[in-house]
Amino acid sequence: MDGTLIGIVAFLAVIGLLAIRVPIAFALAGVAAVGAFCIFAFRTGDFMPDRAIRPTSSLVFSNFFDLIHSYDLSMIPLFVALGHIAYRAEITTAIYHAARVWLAKIPGGVAMASVVGCGGFSAISGSSIACASTMGRICAPEMLSMGYDKRLATASVAAGGTLGSLIPPSVLFIIYGIFTETSISSLFLAGVLPGLLSLAGFLLVIWIWVRQKPGDAPAFTGEITAAERRQAAFAAWPAAALFIVIVGGIYGGFFTATEAAAISVALVTLTGFLQRKLTLAGFWAALRETGIQTTSIFLIAAAAKIFVAFIALTGVAPAIVGAVTGAEPNVIVLMGAIALIYLALGMFLDPIGIMVLTLPLMVPLVESYGLDLIWFGVVVIKLLEIGLITPPVGLNVFVISSVVGKSVPIDRIFSGLLRFLSIDILVLIIIMAVPALSLLIPYSV
């Protein structure tokens, strides 16, 4: 039986299983196991299942073992724990409150503070969903109680939450680095400038929105003293220190990304207890949440590793690379087609699922054109970030909807996100057209 045909059928089977809501880990591992069994069973031309059991088992268990024992994978529980502990220690909320105080007098200042708070949370947690969930509980109800337009109040937090994908540390960058065998430290550094550009773009959207419709963001009528500003800024120092440790430490070559994660967890735990904002109960709750989230990510990553090994066995990737290069499309056409594929998948699938499903095909194709995998990683993460707020299955939108309840219908949140999606597409074009934006920092180390 032709391996390429089996590979194509396997891709279609995975997409079909995901469409009927089969958990992605089971879909990937199950299809890979069945597909590998078929290839080994038909290796001699005749169907010989007894000869397929051992090699199929070896493919499944050896790849599962290799992935789980990956040193780089230890970053995921560390950074996930960092975000949960920082939240319990009120370090992440301090970022929002500082931005809230400093931006209060600016029209739309609370919405801007929400985006800045999301950016600060992203520089600690590395998870877009966690960012949207946490900041949504803090920011959205406050804006709604102040009389902000419902679309602006919810869309600004949903869009800001996507920054967790791009601003380091990022769980998606870790998974991309493991599967493409690129430097995770370099990927973190590559995401800094594009992440800040995205944040600036969201602030610009809010500024233009409020200038066009001042009634959507009621003006702040209170009084904020210089002492209150200084106090709010000082209260946010742990978050700034953590960002310096993670990015500055990696950029300066003082330690690796994994070491940065471990040091940051130790620092945030110590700071929380010393400030008496982190309790033992809160600490154990953060560890429990970390364990649940990490287990889910590990299962998906392990299943993806098995699926990648199966795809390599089918030979479908070289066949697709040969077909595409034979058509001789230029780089612009190629990247445009890749972007459309990711944007289309982002309308229906979650970011990790899209990544592990597409990377086995996209990476060989990109390498055949001599494109930089670090730059391509930033492009992919930006595309996945856009998918988080793209209808009909924008995960961040449903997270925010669960926070605000029935007071804001989902279609209202999506309508408010159209402006943010427009700036996201513009930033994506800039990232694709100017690779130096992503490569300047990692290649200057």
From TrEMBL:
Bilayer-crossing regions: 6-39, 152-179, 185-210, 231-254, 260-285, 297-325, 331-349, 361-380, 386-405, 417-441
GO molecular function: transmembrane transporter activity
Keywords on record: Cell inner membrane, Cell membrane, Membrane, Transmembrane, Transmembrane helix, Transport
Domain TRAP C4-dicarboxylate transport system permease DctM subunit: 12-437
Keyword Ubl conjugation belongs to the record: no
Xref: PANTHER family: C4-DICARBOXYLATE TRAP TRANSPORTER LARGE PERMEASE PROTEIN DCTM (PTHR33362:SF5), SIALIC ACID TRAP TRANSPORTER PERMEASE PROTEIN SIAT-RELATED (PTHR33362)
Subunit text: The complex comprises the extracytoplasmic solute receptor protein and the two transmembrane proteins.
Identification of the protein by name: TRAP transporter large permease protein
Species name: Palleronia abyssalis
